[in-house]
Fold:
Amino acid sequence: MTTDIYILGIETSCDETAASIIKNGHEIVSNIVASQIESQKRFGGVVPEIASRHHVEQITLVIEEALHVAGLEPADLNAVAVTEGPGLVGALLIGINAAKAFAFANGLPIIGVHHIAGHIYANQLMQQMEFPLLALIVSGGHTELVYMKDHGSFELIGETRDDAAGEAYDKVARVLGLPYPGGPQIDKLALASDDAVDFPRAWLEPDSYDFSFSGLKSAVINYKHNIEQKGGTIVPEHVAAGFQKSVIEVLTAKTVRAAKQYDVKQVIAAGGVAANKGLRASLDAAFEQENIPFYVPPISFCTDNAAMIAAAGTPMYMAGVRGDMSMNGRPGMQLTSWNE
Amino acid sequence: MIWLGIDTANTPLSVAIVKDGTVLAEVNSSMAVNHSLRAMSTIEELFATVQLQPKEIDAIAVSEGPGSYTGVRIGVTIAKTLAWTLKKPLVGVSSLKTLAANAFYFDGAICPIVDARRNNVYAGLYEYEDGHLNAIKEDGHFAIEDLLDSLKEYERPVLYIGKDVAMHEVAIREKMGENAIIAPFPLQLPRASSLIHMAQQSEREENIHAFTPEYRRIAEAEANWLMQQRKDKASE
Ligand SMILES: [Zn+2]
Structure:
Protein backbone atom coordinates (compact mmCIF):
# COMPACT_ATOMS: atom_id res chain seq x y z
CA MET A 1 0.00 0.00 0.00
CA THR A 2 1.26 3.44 -0.82
CA THR A 3 0.10 6.54 0.98
CA ASP A 4 0.29 10.00 -0.45
CA ILE A 5 2.62 12.53 1.09
CA TYR A 6 1.43 16.11 1.47
CA ILE A 7 3.97 18.77 2.38
CA LEU A 8 3.12 22.38 3.16
CA GLY A 9 5.84 24.73 1.91
CA ILE A 10 6.38 28.26 3.24
CA GLU A 11 8.72 30.82 1.67
CA THR A 12 9.43 34.39 2.88
CA SER A 13 13.13 34.87 2.12
CA CYS A 14 12.71 38.10 0.15
CA ASP A 15 9.62 39.99 -0.99
CA GLU A 16 7.15 37.22 -1.79
CA THR A 17 4.98 35.71 0.95
CA ALA A 18 4.19 32.24 -0.29
CA ALA A 19 2.59 28.97 0.79
CA SER A 20 1.94 25.83 -1.21
CA ILE A 21 0.94 22.23 -0.79
CA ILE A 22 2.68 19.58 -2.88
CA LYS A 23 1.59 15.96 -3.19
CA ASN A 24 4.25 13.25 -3.44
CA GLY A 25 6.96 15.78 -4.18
CA HIS A 26 5.84 16.77 -7.64
CA GLU A 27 2.09 17.37 -7.85
CA ILE A 28 0.98 20.95 -7.23
CA VAL A 29 -2.14 20.89 -5.08
CA SER A 30 -2.08 24.60 -4.27
CA ASN A 31 0.38 27.41 -4.82
CA ILE A 32 -0.25 30.86 -3.32
CA VAL A 33 2.09 33.84 -3.75
CA ALA A 34 1.46 37.32 -2.34
CA SER A 35 3.87 39.70 -4.03
CA GLN A 36 5.06 42.99 -2.57
CA ILE A 37 6.40 44.29 -5.84
CA GLU A 38 3.88 47.14 -6.04
CA SER A 39 4.86 48.40 -2.59
CA GLN A 40 8.61 47.91 -3.07
CA LYS A 41 8.58 49.70 -6.45
CA ARG A 42 8.43 53.03 -4.59
CA PHE A 43 11.87 52.41 -3.17
CA GLY A 44 13.53 51.12 -6.35
CA GLY A 45 14.38 47.82 -4.67
CA VAL A 46 13.51 45.60 -1.76
CA VAL A 47 13.68 47.38 1.61
CA PRO A 48 14.14 44.65 4.25
CA GLU A 49 12.07 46.35 6.98
CA ILE A 50 9.17 46.93 4.57
CA ALA A 51 9.42 43.33 3.35
CA SER A 52 9.18 42.01 6.92
CA ARG A 53 6.16 44.20 7.69
CA HIS A 54 4.34 42.90 4.63
CA HIS A 55 5.14 39.29 5.49
CA VAL A 56 3.46 39.63 8.92
CA GLU A 57 0.34 40.99 7.20
CA GLN A 58 0.17 38.16 4.67
CA ILE A 59 1.57 35.02 6.28
CA THR A 60 -1.51 33.39 7.83
CA LEU A 61 -3.63 34.43 4.84
CA VAL A 62 -1.42 32.63 2.33
CA ILE A 63 -1.22 29.48 4.47
CA GLU A 64 -4.99 29.46 4.90
CA GLU A 65 -5.48 29.97 1.17
CA ALA A 66 -3.05 27.12 0.38
CA LEU A 67 -5.07 24.77 2.60
CA HIS A 68 -8.38 26.07 1.25
CA VAL A 69 -7.45 25.66 -2.42
CA ALA A 70 -6.10 22.18 -1.67
CA GLY A 71 -9.24 21.30 0.22
CA LEU A 72 -7.09 19.91 3.03
CA GLU A 73 -6.98 20.21 6.82
CA PRO A 74 -3.72 20.53 8.77
CA ALA A 75 -4.25 16.92 9.90
CA ASP A 76 -3.93 15.78 6.27
CA LEU A 77 -0.39 17.11 6.04
CA ASN A 78 2.78 15.11 6.69
CA ALA A 79 5.15 17.99 7.42
CA VAL A 80 5.86 21.69 7.07
CA ALA A 81 8.86 22.72 4.95
CA VAL A 82 10.10 26.29 5.28
CA THR A 83 12.92 28.33 3.80
CA GLU A 84 15.60 28.49 6.51
CA GLY A 85 18.05 30.56 4.43
CA PRO A 86 19.69 32.27 2.71
CA GLY A 87 17.76 35.51 2.42
CA LEU A 88 16.83 38.63 4.36
CA VAL A 89 16.97 37.59 7.99
CA GLY A 90 13.96 39.61 9.16
CA ALA A 91 11.91 38.24 6.28
CA LEU A 92 13.02 34.63 6.83
CA LEU A 93 12.02 34.87 10.50
CA ILE A 94 8.36 35.46 9.67
CA GLY A 95 8.03 32.30 7.58
CA ILE A 96 10.09 30.28 10.04
CA ASN A 97 8.14 31.33 13.12
CA ALA A 98 4.80 30.89 11.40
CA ALA A 99 5.95 27.45 10.24
CA LYS A 100 7.09 26.49 13.74
CA ALA A 101 3.85 27.70 15.37
CA PHE A 102 1.75 25.92 12.75
CA ALA A 103 3.76 22.70 13.06
CA PHE A 104 3.65 22.80 16.87
CA ALA A 105 -0.09 23.49 17.00
CA ASN A 106 -0.82 20.63 14.62
CA GLY A 107 1.77 18.12 15.81
CA LEU A 108 3.67 18.13 12.50
CA PRO A 109 7.41 17.80 11.87
CA ILE A 110 9.23 20.84 10.51
CA ILE A 111 11.93 20.82 7.85
CA GLY A 112 14.30 23.71 7.07
CA VAL A 113 14.95 24.01 3.33
CA HIS A 114 17.77 25.85 1.58
CA HIS A 115 16.32 28.44 -0.79
CA ILE A 116 18.55 27.35 -3.69
CA ALA A 117 17.68 23.68 -3.18
CA GLY A 118 14.12 24.93 -3.55
CA HIS A 119 14.88 26.67 -6.85
CA ILE A 120 16.51 23.49 -8.16
CA TYR A 121 13.58 21.31 -7.06
CA ALA A 122 11.13 23.62 -8.84
CA ASN A 123 12.01 21.43 -11.82
CA GLN A 124 10.69 18.36 -10.04
CA LEU A 125 7.24 19.94 -10.41
CA MET A 126 7.56 19.73 -14.21
CA GLN A 127 9.34 16.43 -14.81
CA GLN A 128 11.34 13.87 -12.86
CA MET A 129 14.86 14.93 -12.06
CA GLU A 130 17.42 12.50 -13.44
CA PHE A 131 20.86 12.14 -11.96
CA PRO A 132 23.58 13.10 -12.29
CA LEU A 133 22.37 16.55 -13.17
CA LEU A 134 23.72 20.05 -13.43
CA ALA A 135 21.77 23.06 -12.21
CA LEU A 136 22.41 26.67 -13.16
CA ILE A 137 20.89 28.98 -10.56
CA VAL A 138 20.60 32.60 -11.61
CA SER A 139 18.71 35.15 -9.54
CA GLY A 140 19.02 38.51 -7.83
CA GLY A 141 21.08 36.91 -5.08
CA HIS A 142 22.71 33.95 -6.78
CA THR A 143 24.73 32.79 -9.75
CA GLU A 144 25.76 29.21 -9.16
CA LEU A 145 26.50 25.96 -10.92
CA VAL A 146 25.54 22.99 -8.78
CA TYR A 147 26.30 19.35 -9.57
CA MET A 148 23.94 16.74 -8.11
CA LYS A 149 24.68 13.04 -8.25
CA ASP A 150 21.51 12.17 -6.35
CA HIS A 151 18.63 13.69 -4.36
CA GLY A 152 19.97 15.91 -1.61
CA SER A 153 23.55 15.82 -2.86
CA PHE A 154 24.80 19.26 -3.81
CA GLU A 155 28.27 20.07 -5.05
CA LEU A 156 28.94 23.72 -5.78
CA ILE A 157 31.26 23.79 -8.79
CA GLY A 158 31.02 27.48 -9.65
CA GLU A 159 29.66 30.69 -8.20
CA THR A 160 29.86 34.43 -8.66
CA ARG A 161 32.86 36.19 -7.18
CA ASP A 162 31.08 39.53 -6.95
CA ASP A 163 27.60 40.52 -8.13
CA ALA A 164 24.89 37.97 -8.81
CA ALA A 165 23.58 38.00 -12.38
CA GLY A 166 20.25 39.48 -11.30
CA GLU A 167 22.03 42.13 -9.25
CA ALA A 168 24.03 43.16 -12.34
CA TYR A 169 20.79 43.37 -14.32
CA ASP A 170 19.20 45.61 -11.68
CA LYS A 171 22.25 47.88 -11.48
CA VAL A 172 22.54 48.26 -15.25
CA ALA A 173 18.79 48.89 -15.44
CA ARG A 174 19.28 51.75 -12.98
CA VAL A 175 22.12 53.17 -15.13
CA LEU A 176 19.73 53.09 -18.08
CA GLY A 177 17.00 54.73 -16.01
CA LEU A 178 14.65 51.73 -16.25
CA PRO A 179 12.03 51.13 -13.55
CA TYR A 180 12.38 48.40 -10.89
CA PRO A 181 12.59 45.44 -11.31
CA GLY A 182 15.07 46.03 -14.09
CA GLY A 183 15.83 42.51 -15.31
CA PRO A 184 12.71 41.95 -17.42
CA GLN A 185 13.04 45.50 -18.84
CA ILE A 186 16.57 44.86 -20.09
CA ASP A 187 15.50 41.52 -21.53
CA LYS A 188 12.70 43.27 -23.43
CA LEU A 189 14.93 46.07 -24.75
CA ALA A 190 17.65 43.60 -25.73
CA LEU A 191 15.27 41.35 -27.65
CA ALA A 192 13.90 44.34 -29.57
CA SER A 193 17.32 45.74 -30.45
CA ASP A 194 18.86 45.59 -33.90
CA ASP A 195 22.40 46.19 -32.67
CA ALA A 196 24.51 45.58 -29.60
CA VAL A 197 27.36 47.48 -27.98
CA ASP A 198 30.43 45.29 -27.61
CA PHE A 199 31.13 44.74 -23.91
CA PRO A 200 33.83 42.45 -22.45
CA ARG A 201 33.20 38.86 -21.29
CA ALA A 202 34.53 37.79 -17.92
CA TRP A 203 35.83 34.25 -18.57
CA LEU A 204 38.18 34.21 -15.54
CA GLU A 205 40.73 31.32 -15.45
CA PRO A 206 40.34 28.85 -18.34
CA ASP A 207 39.19 25.96 -16.12
CA SER A 208 37.05 28.02 -13.74
CA TYR A 209 33.30 27.69 -13.47
CA ASP A 210 33.09 30.88 -11.41
CA PHE A 211 31.42 34.04 -12.63
CA SER A 212 32.08 37.75 -12.32
CA PHE A 213 29.73 40.51 -13.37
CA SER A 214 31.00 43.63 -11.62
CA GLY A 215 33.52 44.38 -14.40
CA LEU A 216 30.76 44.23 -16.98
CA LYS A 217 28.61 46.57 -14.92
CA SER A 218 31.53 49.04 -14.71
CA ALA A 219 32.07 48.74 -18.46
CA VAL A 220 28.47 49.76 -19.05
CA ILE A 221 28.81 52.74 -16.70
CA ASN A 222 32.08 53.84 -18.37
CA TYR A 223 30.58 53.50 -21.82
CA LYS A 224 27.69 55.76 -20.84
CA HIS A 225 30.02 58.34 -19.23
CA ASN A 226 32.32 58.44 -22.25
CA ILE A 227 29.50 59.02 -24.70
CA GLU A 228 27.83 61.63 -22.51
CA GLN A 229 31.10 63.45 -21.90
CA LYS A 230 31.37 63.93 -25.63
CA GLY A 231 27.87 65.40 -25.61
CA GLY A 232 26.24 62.33 -27.14
CA THR A 233 23.47 60.09 -25.88
CA ILE A 234 23.43 56.32 -25.61
CA VAL A 235 20.91 54.08 -27.34
CA PRO A 236 19.46 52.13 -24.38
CA GLU A 237 18.43 49.20 -26.61
CA HIS A 238 21.97 48.76 -27.88
CA VAL A 239 23.43 48.94 -24.37
CA ALA A 240 20.86 46.47 -23.01
CA ALA A 241 21.51 44.08 -25.89
CA GLY A 242 25.28 44.30 -25.46
CA PHE A 243 25.09 43.76 -21.73
CA GLN A 244 22.67 40.86 -22.03
CA LYS A 245 24.78 39.25 -24.77
CA SER A 246 27.85 39.32 -22.56
CA VAL A 247 26.01 37.81 -19.58
CA ILE A 248 24.28 35.12 -21.60
CA GLU A 249 27.34 34.08 -23.56
CA VAL A 250 29.36 33.45 -20.39
CA LEU A 251 26.51 31.69 -18.56
CA THR A 252 25.79 29.45 -21.54
CA ALA A 253 29.40 28.57 -22.35
CA LYS A 254 30.29 27.67 -18.75
CA THR A 255 27.13 25.64 -18.24
CA VAL A 256 27.74 23.68 -21.44
CA ARG A 257 31.38 23.04 -20.56
CA ALA A 258 30.43 21.82 -17.06
CA ALA A 259 27.63 19.61 -18.39
CA LYS A 260 30.09 17.91 -20.72
CA GLN A 261 32.86 17.56 -18.17
CA TYR A 262 30.53 16.05 -15.54
CA ASP A 263 28.74 13.97 -18.14
CA VAL A 264 25.28 14.75 -16.77
CA LYS A 265 21.96 13.26 -17.87
CA GLN A 266 20.06 16.51 -17.42
CA VAL A 267 20.67 20.23 -17.15
CA ILE A 268 18.23 22.50 -15.40
CA ALA A 269 18.06 26.24 -14.94
CA ALA A 270 16.40 27.90 -11.96
CA GLY A 271 15.98 31.24 -10.25
CA GLY A 272 14.40 34.55 -11.23
CA VAL A 273 16.89 35.30 -14.04
CA ALA A 274 16.08 31.91 -15.59
CA ALA A 275 12.85 33.64 -16.60
CA ASN A 276 14.94 35.78 -18.96
CA LYS A 277 13.85 35.00 -22.54
CA GLY A 278 17.26 35.64 -24.07
CA LEU A 279 18.96 33.29 -21.62
CA ARG A 280 16.37 30.56 -22.07
CA ALA A 281 16.72 30.70 -25.84
CA SER A 282 20.50 30.58 -25.69
CA LEU A 283 20.60 27.60 -23.30
CA ASP A 284 17.90 25.78 -25.26
CA ALA A 285 19.85 26.11 -28.49
CA ALA A 286 23.18 25.16 -26.94
CA PHE A 287 21.91 22.00 -25.26
CA GLU A 288 19.91 20.94 -28.26
CA GLN A 289 23.14 21.01 -30.19
CA GLU A 290 24.89 19.02 -27.45
CA ASN A 291 21.98 16.60 -27.29
CA ILE A 292 21.65 16.96 -23.49
CA PRO A 293 18.12 17.35 -22.08
CA PHE A 294 17.69 20.88 -20.78
CA TYR A 295 14.76 22.08 -18.66
CA VAL A 296 13.68 25.34 -17.18
CA PRO A 297 10.46 25.76 -15.20
CA PRO A 298 7.70 28.12 -16.34
CA ILE A 299 8.36 31.72 -15.28
CA SER A 300 6.04 31.58 -12.25
CA PHE A 301 8.18 28.77 -10.83
CA CYS A 302 11.49 30.52 -11.60
CA THR A 303 10.64 33.43 -9.32
CA ASP A 304 10.30 32.78 -5.59
CA ASN A 305 7.45 30.49 -4.62
CA ALA A 306 6.64 27.96 -1.93
CA ALA A 307 5.86 25.03 -4.22
CA MET A 308 9.59 24.65 -4.82
CA ILE A 309 10.23 24.63 -1.05
CA ALA A 310 7.65 21.89 -0.52
CA ALA A 311 9.09 19.98 -3.51
CA ALA A 312 12.59 20.14 -2.02
CA GLY A 313 11.22 19.35 1.44
CA THR A 314 9.56 16.11 0.30
CA PRO A 315 12.70 13.99 -0.28
CA MET A 316 14.11 15.53 2.93
CA TYR A 317 11.00 14.39 4.77
CA MET A 318 11.34 10.90 3.34
CA ALA A 319 15.02 10.81 4.31
CA GLY A 320 14.11 11.72 7.90
CA VAL A 321 15.59 15.22 7.93
CA ARG A 322 13.93 17.25 10.72
CA GLY A 323 14.24 20.68 12.27
CA ASP A 324 13.00 21.76 15.67
CA MET A 325 11.42 24.66 17.54
CA SER A 326 14.77 26.46 17.85
CA MET A 327 15.06 26.94 14.08
CA ASN A 328 16.51 30.35 13.31
CA GLY A 329 16.76 32.38 10.12
CA ARG A 330 20.12 31.73 8.45
CA PRO A 331 20.80 34.62 6.06
CA GLY A 332 24.14 33.18 4.90
CA MET A 333 23.16 29.50 4.91
CA GLN A 334 25.41 27.28 2.78
CA LEU A 335 23.97 24.73 0.38
CA THR A 336 25.06 21.44 1.91
CA SER A 337 24.01 17.91 1.13
CA TRP A 338 21.49 16.31 3.43
CA ASN A 339 21.81 12.75 2.23
CA GLU A 340 25.44 12.11 3.18
CA MET B 1 -10.26 29.09 30.72
CA ILE B 2 -6.62 28.53 29.75
CA TRP B 3 -4.53 31.40 28.41
CA LEU B 4 -1.18 31.38 26.66
CA GLY B 5 0.73 34.67 26.89
CA ILE B 6 3.75 35.61 24.77
CA ASP B 7 6.01 38.68 25.04
CA THR B 8 9.05 38.96 22.75
CA ALA B 9 8.72 42.68 22.04
CA ASN B 10 12.12 43.55 23.46
CA THR B 11 15.22 41.80 24.81
CA PRO B 12 13.29 40.00 27.59
CA LEU B 13 11.32 36.89 26.77
CA SER B 14 8.26 35.96 28.78
CA VAL B 15 5.84 33.11 28.19
CA ALA B 16 3.09 32.00 30.57
CA ILE B 17 0.14 29.67 30.79
CA VAL B 18 -2.64 30.80 33.11
CA LYS B 19 -5.61 28.60 34.00
CA ASP B 20 -8.70 30.06 35.68
CA GLY B 21 -6.76 32.83 37.35
CA THR B 22 -3.81 30.66 38.38
CA VAL B 23 -0.36 30.89 36.83
CA LEU B 24 0.45 27.29 35.90
CA ALA B 25 3.89 28.18 34.60
CA GLU B 26 5.84 31.20 33.52
CA VAL B 27 9.30 31.59 32.03
CA ASN B 28 11.07 34.94 32.13
CA SER B 29 14.50 35.80 30.87
CA SER B 30 16.36 38.85 29.72
CA MET B 31 19.32 37.34 27.95
CA ALA B 32 20.20 38.91 24.61
CA VAL B 33 19.30 35.71 22.73
CA ASN B 34 17.54 35.80 19.38
CA HIS B 35 13.83 35.24 20.06
CA SER B 36 13.60 32.90 17.09
CA LEU B 37 15.90 30.48 18.91
CA ARG B 38 14.06 30.69 22.21
CA ALA B 39 10.42 31.72 21.80
CA MET B 40 8.86 28.62 20.21
CA SER B 41 11.14 26.23 22.06
CA THR B 42 10.18 27.87 25.37
CA ILE B 43 6.49 27.59 24.45
CA GLU B 44 7.02 23.90 23.63
CA GLU B 45 8.77 23.35 27.00
CA LEU B 46 6.03 25.23 28.84
CA PHE B 47 3.29 23.05 27.36
CA ALA B 48 5.29 19.96 28.38
CA THR B 49 5.70 21.37 31.91
CA VAL B 50 1.98 21.91 32.41
CA GLN B 51 1.12 18.72 30.49
CA LEU B 52 -1.26 20.36 28.07
CA GLN B 53 -1.73 19.98 24.35
CA PRO B 54 -1.75 23.13 22.19
CA LYS B 55 -5.41 22.63 21.29
CA GLU B 56 -6.39 22.68 24.97
CA ILE B 57 -5.78 26.40 25.37
CA ASP B 58 -8.73 28.76 25.07
CA ALA B 59 -7.13 32.10 24.22
CA ILE B 60 -3.83 33.71 23.32
CA ALA B 61 -2.43 37.04 24.50
CA VAL B 62 0.53 38.68 22.83
CA SER B 63 2.57 41.78 23.37
CA GLU B 64 1.95 43.77 20.18
CA GLY B 65 4.71 46.37 20.61
CA PRO B 66 6.16 48.88 20.46
CA GLY B 67 9.69 47.61 20.74
CA SER B 68 12.32 45.88 18.64
CA TYR B 69 10.79 45.52 15.17
CA THR B 70 12.06 41.97 14.74
CA GLY B 71 11.19 40.96 18.30
CA VAL B 72 7.63 42.23 18.06
CA ARG B 73 7.16 40.50 14.73
CA ILE B 74 8.32 37.14 16.06
CA GLY B 75 5.81 37.23 18.94
CA VAL B 76 2.98 38.52 16.77
CA THR B 77 3.67 35.97 14.01
CA ILE B 78 3.72 33.07 16.48
CA ALA B 79 0.58 34.31 18.28
CA LYS B 80 -1.49 34.97 15.19
CA THR B 81 -0.47 31.67 13.58
CA LEU B 82 -1.39 29.73 16.74
CA ALA B 83 -4.67 31.60 17.17
CA TRP B 84 -5.63 31.15 13.53
CA THR B 85 -4.79 27.46 13.19
CA LEU B 86 -6.15 26.51 16.64
CA LYS B 87 -9.22 28.69 16.04
CA LYS B 88 -8.81 30.51 19.36
CA PRO B 89 -9.35 34.16 20.20
CA LEU B 90 -6.34 36.46 20.10
CA VAL B 91 -5.78 39.59 22.17
CA GLY B 92 -2.97 42.06 21.51
CA VAL B 93 -1.75 44.16 24.43
CA SER B 94 0.68 47.05 24.36
CA SER B 95 4.19 46.01 25.41
CA LEU B 96 4.31 49.21 27.48
CA LYS B 97 1.02 48.50 29.19
CA THR B 98 2.33 45.03 30.03
CA LEU B 99 5.31 46.61 31.78
CA ALA B 100 3.11 49.14 33.58
CA ALA B 101 0.93 46.28 34.80
CA ASN B 102 3.80 45.17 37.05
CA ALA B 103 3.11 48.18 39.30
CA PHE B 104 -0.27 46.91 40.35
CA TYR B 105 -0.53 48.68 43.71
CA PHE B 106 1.18 51.91 42.74
CA ASP B 107 -1.02 54.90 43.45
CA GLY B 108 -0.03 57.37 40.76
CA ALA B 109 1.17 57.63 37.20
CA ILE B 110 3.32 54.87 35.74
CA CYS B 111 5.68 55.54 32.86
CA PRO B 112 6.91 52.37 31.11
CA ILE B 113 10.05 52.97 29.07
CA VAL B 114 11.77 50.96 26.35
CA ASP B 115 14.94 52.31 24.81
CA ALA B 116 14.73 53.08 21.07
CA ARG B 117 18.37 54.16 20.55
CA ARG B 118 19.88 57.56 19.80
CA ASN B 119 18.32 59.09 22.94
CA ASN B 120 14.85 58.04 21.88
CA VAL B 121 12.43 55.87 23.80
CA TYR B 122 9.10 54.18 23.41
CA ALA B 123 6.97 55.26 26.33
CA GLY B 124 3.46 55.69 27.58
CA LEU B 125 1.75 56.89 30.75
CA TYR B 126 -0.69 54.74 32.68
CA GLU B 127 -2.70 54.91 35.88
CA TYR B 128 -4.64 52.33 37.87
CA GLU B 129 -8.26 53.14 38.55
CA ASP B 130 -10.56 50.58 40.22
CA GLY B 131 -8.21 47.77 39.25
CA HIS B 132 -8.08 48.88 35.62
CA LEU B 133 -4.95 50.19 34.01
CA ASN B 134 -5.83 53.20 31.88
CA ALA B 135 -3.61 55.01 29.40
CA ILE B 136 -3.37 58.72 30.21
CA LYS B 137 -0.85 59.36 27.44
CA GLU B 138 -0.83 57.37 24.25
CA ASP B 139 2.12 55.03 23.62
CA GLY B 140 4.62 56.62 21.31
CA HIS B 141 8.16 57.16 20.14
CA PHE B 142 9.75 60.18 21.84
CA ALA B 143 13.08 61.91 22.27
CA ILE B 144 13.80 61.28 25.95
CA GLU B 145 14.15 65.03 26.57
CA ASP B 146 10.72 65.74 25.06
CA LEU B 147 9.12 62.97 27.06
CA LEU B 148 10.55 64.26 30.32
CA ASP B 149 9.55 67.84 29.49
CA SER B 150 5.97 66.73 29.01
CA LEU B 151 5.98 64.68 32.21
CA LYS B 152 7.39 67.60 34.19
CA GLU B 153 4.24 69.60 33.54
CA TYR B 154 2.40 66.78 35.23
CA GLU B 155 3.83 67.89 38.64
CA ARG B 156 3.19 64.59 40.37
CA PRO B 157 5.33 61.58 41.27
CA VAL B 158 5.79 59.23 38.33
CA LEU B 159 7.00 55.64 38.54
CA TYR B 160 9.47 54.71 35.77
CA ILE B 161 9.40 51.07 34.89
CA GLY B 162 11.27 48.81 32.48
CA LYS B 163 14.81 47.47 32.35
CA ASP B 164 15.90 50.25 29.97
CA VAL B 165 15.03 52.90 32.56
CA ALA B 166 18.57 52.40 33.89
CA MET B 167 19.99 53.83 30.66
CA HIS B 168 18.09 57.07 31.22
CA GLU B 169 18.08 57.19 35.03
CA VAL B 170 20.49 60.12 35.28
CA ALA B 171 18.43 62.24 32.89
CA ILE B 172 15.20 61.29 34.65
CA ARG B 173 16.46 62.11 38.14
CA GLU B 174 18.07 65.34 37.00
CA LYS B 175 14.94 66.63 35.37
CA MET B 176 12.21 65.26 37.63
CA GLY B 177 13.95 65.48 41.01
CA GLU B 178 11.72 64.36 43.87
CA ASN B 179 8.96 63.27 41.51
CA ALA B 180 11.11 60.54 39.95
CA ILE B 181 10.50 57.06 41.32
CA ILE B 182 12.43 54.20 39.77
CA ALA B 183 10.89 50.74 40.00
CA PRO B 184 13.08 48.09 41.68
CA PHE B 185 14.56 45.26 39.63
CA PRO B 186 11.91 42.58 40.31
CA LEU B 187 9.39 44.79 38.50
CA GLN B 188 11.56 45.69 35.51
CA LEU B 189 10.86 42.73 33.23
CA PRO B 190 7.60 42.25 31.34
CA ARG B 191 5.64 39.21 32.56
CA ALA B 192 3.41 37.19 30.31
CA SER B 193 1.08 36.54 33.27
CA SER B 194 0.56 40.33 33.60
CA LEU B 195 0.05 40.42 29.84
CA ILE B 196 -2.69 37.81 30.15
CA HIS B 197 -4.22 39.74 33.05
CA MET B 198 -4.45 42.84 30.85
CA ALA B 199 -5.71 40.78 27.88
CA GLN B 200 -8.59 39.46 29.97
CA GLN B 201 -9.84 43.03 30.30
CA SER B 202 -9.38 43.86 26.59
CA GLU B 203 -11.24 43.31 23.37
CA ARG B 204 -10.24 40.34 21.27
CA GLU B 205 -8.98 40.94 17.72
CA GLU B 206 -11.81 40.86 15.21
CA ASN B 207 -9.64 39.67 12.33
CA ILE B 208 -6.66 37.53 13.23
CA HIS B 209 -5.21 37.67 9.69
CA ALA B 210 -5.14 41.45 9.79
CA PHE B 211 -3.49 41.59 13.21
CA THR B 212 -0.11 43.34 12.96
CA PRO B 213 2.38 44.88 15.40
CA GLU B 214 1.94 48.35 16.83
CA TYR B 215 5.28 49.70 15.66
CA ARG B 216 4.49 53.27 16.75
CA ARG B 217 6.94 54.37 14.12
CA ILE B 218 6.92 54.14 10.33
CA ALA B 219 9.84 52.42 8.61
CA GLU B 220 12.74 54.72 7.73
CA ALA B 221 12.45 54.03 3.99
CA GLU B 222 8.76 54.88 4.13
CA ALA B 223 9.43 58.10 6.03
CA ASN B 224 12.04 59.16 3.47
CA TRP B 225 9.71 58.30 0.64
CA LEU B 226 6.87 60.35 2.16
CA MET B 227 9.23 63.28 2.68
CA GLN B 228 10.30 63.08 -0.98
CA GLN B 229 6.66 62.98 -2.08
CA ARG B 230 5.98 66.13 -0.09
CA LYS B 231 9.04 67.88 -1.53
CA ASP B 232 8.02 66.92 -5.07
CA LYS B 233 4.58 68.29 -4.44
CA ALA B 234 5.90 71.55 -3.03
CA SER B 235 8.17 72.11 -6.02
CA GLU B 236 5.41 71.45 -8.56
ZN1 LIG C 1 15.01 32.99 -5.08
